[in-house]
């Protein structure tokens, strides 16, 4: 199912650990499984290669882009599976103090055809005292990013970006028919907001939303919410998986985007308020 406006997508749900080589092995197995199930296109969660224990261990395991072991191995895996793949994000060294939380899009030859650096940093204190301060580790991105696939243009976002609807509207206005939201939501925020935010972004933009997620307890102690989902432009949940390592598969028909926007053309109806 890979011609014109139709394709089959696989959204991977996984529990990334602290060893890059083991996570690479898991990804290769899952990619092959997705291919066997007829997928044309695969998307993985945020931080697919490493959930480090702390900043020091993160920097011990990552490198600058042109010499990064994980990225090099990923390219080889993608080439072996021979599909379009968007790796939700991996950490790439920016300088000796900060990293980039970067999405990579690959063609079936393993060539990089698009990148995106997470714009919005998860700097929060939750009601139970749980704290995160991503800006101490990552340099925020500044640019929108879309990647052109054979079926449509795909907008790239990561996790906490989901709370900033203007980003999604701009991606849709620039031509995205599909927007990815690779994530590692906490249980606290996931239970409260995950479904609502994803459905809202789909309805507001008239896009398909692909949301591959981290799940379960990681070796570094973090617990991720899971609930990988694929959502239609109408805001309907096409498929969802709960709390296991698995994958969500769906057949996507891009003509649904055009049909939805003809009925409700709000994405291009701009009124500015003071």
Can you offer a commentary on this structure?
By secondary structure, the protein is of the alpha/beta class. The chain has a single domain, classed as 4-Layer Sandwich (Nitrilase/N-carbamoyl-D-aminoacid amidohydrolase). The protein has helices at residues 20-36, 55-61, 69-81, 165-173, 187-205, 255-263, and strands at 6-13, 41-43, 84-93, 99-106, 112-117, 123-125, 131-133, 146-148, 153-156, 176-180, 208-211, 215-217, 223-225, 229-231, 237-240, 246-253. The strands form four sheets. A six-stranded mixed β-sheet has the order 5-4-3-2-1-16. Helix 5 (187-205) links the parallel strand 10 and strand 11 (208-211). It is globular, with a radius of gyration of 17 Å. The model has no long low-confidence stretch (mean pLDDT 96).
Q: What can be said about the biggest beta sheet?
A: 6 strands, mixed
Tally of domains: 1
Mean pLDDT level:
96
The number of helical runs is 6
CATH class: Alpha Beta
What name goes with the CATH superfamily?
Carbon-nitrogen hydrolase
What is the percentage of strand-forming residues? 25-35%
Low-confidence parts lasting 5 or more residues at pLDDT below 50? none
Distance between the termini: 47 Å
* Helix content estimate: 25-40%
